[in-house]
Here is the input.
Amino acid sequence: MTTTGERAGGGLGGPAGNWREDNRALWDERVPLHTESAFYDVAGFKAGRNDLRGFEADEVGDVTGKRLLHLQCHIGTDTLSWARRGAEVTGLDFSGPAVEAARALAGEVGEERARFVEADVYDAPAALRGETFDIVYTGFGALCWLPDLTQWARTAAQLVAPGGFLYLAEFHPVAMCLGEDGSAFTEDYFARGPFAYEEPGSYAALTAATRHNRSVEWQHPLSDVVSAVTAAGLRLEFLHEHDFTLFEYLDGMVRARDTSGSRGGESTVYRLPEGRPRIPMVYSLRASK
Here is the structure.
């Protein structure tokens, strides 16, 4: 996951530098911060909490006995949440420490239907030796780390088994372009990047002292996402927009329980207060093969 920050040295066509190495170093360093953070609350997860949002469970449907691949899985809490719902899960991430943490967590909660693979998302077909899956899942804060959505979509489509589908739940690019008061755009919606950031700490540990602070990210307008997915040969079933998010990044946001979907979820979400115009903060799509 990521949150917006001050854009530095980026802009359309800005230098990406060694973006993959910089991003991997950043995420590697933040793994222990996240496993110990209140944000991830690993102790609560071990006690049985499910980290999926209510709408995700409804939109994906029954996963019992299904083979599910989670791309860019980080420390595996969402991956293992799908396993708790009955899926046979594979999590994939380019951070070695994240994969190690996910494997350890799977062992601690006794989840035998889970495995974790260290690989870059673009290398997933080779790393998984041609396996395909009933469901390919990508969760929040993943796409901003990828420069080439066309290649990502082709990769995802290659991993979807015939009759299966890709499911994506992601932060909405409109909301990510708003200023802190939420009243106006302060970022160019169509500026795709790369954007270089120098930010210590983490969204899960704001005041932590960190050494690897340079990250490189991209912004993907919603039209780019949909176009890439359909061009990869997947059939779009739906595109939904939601009026809440996972971070308190706009002034006046109200913390609330996740009431999305038929049963809601166990995660905390943030909404704009009553009386303020609602905006799309999160979107989800499903596309079948």
Observations:
- Residues 19-288 form a domain with the Rossmann fold fold (CATH 3.40.50.150).
